[in-house]
Design a protein that fits this description.
Strand content: 15-25%
Structural class: alpha/beta
Number of strands: 7
CATH architecture: 3-Layer(aba) Sandwich
CATH superfamily: Glycerol-3-phosphate (1)-acyltransferase
Helix content: 25-40%
Order of helices and strands: HEEHEHEHEHEEH
Strand order of the largest sheet: 1-7-6-2-5-3-4
Distance between the termini: 44 Å
CATH class: Alpha Beta
Largest sheet: 7 strands, mixed
Shape: globular
CATH topology: Glycerol-3-phosphate (1)-acyltransferase
Oligomer: single chain
Number of domains: 1
Length: 188
C-alpha cells in the first residue's frame, strides 16, 4: 500500500486568511467552481497573469492545491513559508530535478495539482506566452483530467472550464487543445 501524503497544516491555517484577503481587497468572481471535483485527482491549468494568481486559486476551492512553483520562492526568508505549503519546486535552470515525478506522487494520492502552462507571469496582459508541455504530459502519464481556467479582468474574475482528458502523447497537439480551452475561457 502506498504512503498517503499528509496535507500541509500550514496551508489549512493560511487558507482562511487568504480568502479574507482576496474577498476584502480583490473581490473576485468565480465561475465554474462546480467543474473542480470535490474528490479525486485533478490538474488545474490556466493563465498566469500576476503574482496574486495563487491566492485567487487557493481562495476558490476548499481543496488543498499543490502548485508547481519556481525554486526562487524558497530563498530565505520566504522558504519558511513555502516549505510548508505542499508546493512542488521547479528549477528552471537545472533539469536534474523531477518536478513532474513529484506531481505524479500527489496525483497518485488523489490530490489537486496546479500548473501554469506558460511557466511564468504573462508579460503583456491578455497575451499568452508559449505553453510548456508539463501539464499535458503529466495528465497523460497519470490518466488525470485537466480543468482549464482563465483569470480575467485584472484578477477580478476566475473562470473554470469543464474537465477534459488528454488522450494522446502527441504533446504539441495536446498543448494546442489546452491553449484553445484556456483562450475560450479568457474570451468568454
Amino acid at each position: 500500500m502506498k504512503n498517503k501524503i499528509k496535507e500541509p497544516i500550514f496551508y489549512k491555517i493560511i487558507r482562511p486568511l487568504v480568502k479574507i484577503y482576496t474577498n476584502t481587497f480583490i473581490r473576485p468572481k468565480y465561475k465554474g467552481l462546480n467543474n473542480i471535483p470535490l474528490k479525486g485527482k485533478i490538474i488545474l491549468a490556466g493563465t498566469h497573469t500576476s503574482k496574486l494568481d495563487p491566492l485567487l486559486i487557493i481562495s476558490s476551492t476548499k481543496r488543498v492545491v499543490h502548485f508547481f512553483a519556481k525554486k526562487e520562492l524558497w530563498e530565505f526568508p520566504k522558504s519558511i513559508i513555502f516549505n510548508h505549503l505542499g508546493l512542488i519546486k521547479v528549477d528552471r535552470q537545472n533539469h536534474t530535478t523531477d518536478p513532474l515525478g513529484e506531481g505524479k506522487k500527489y496525483l497518485d494520492d488523489n490530490k489537486v495539482v496546479l500548473i501554469f502552462p506558460e511557466g511564468t507571469i504573462e508579460k503583456e496582459k491578455g497575451k499568452s506566452l508559449p505553453y510548456k508541455v508539463g501539464a499535458v504530459k503529466l495528465a497523460y502519464e497519470t490518466n488525470t483530467e485537466i480543468v482549464p481556467f482563465a483569470i480575467r479582468n485584472n484578477n477580478k474574475e476566475i473562470i473554470y472550464g469543464k474537465p477534459y482528458k488528454v488522450i494522446t502523447d502527441d504533446y504539441d497537439k495536446e498543448l494546442e487543445i489546452l491553449k484553445q480551452h484556456v483562450e475560450e475561457l479568457r474570451n468568454e
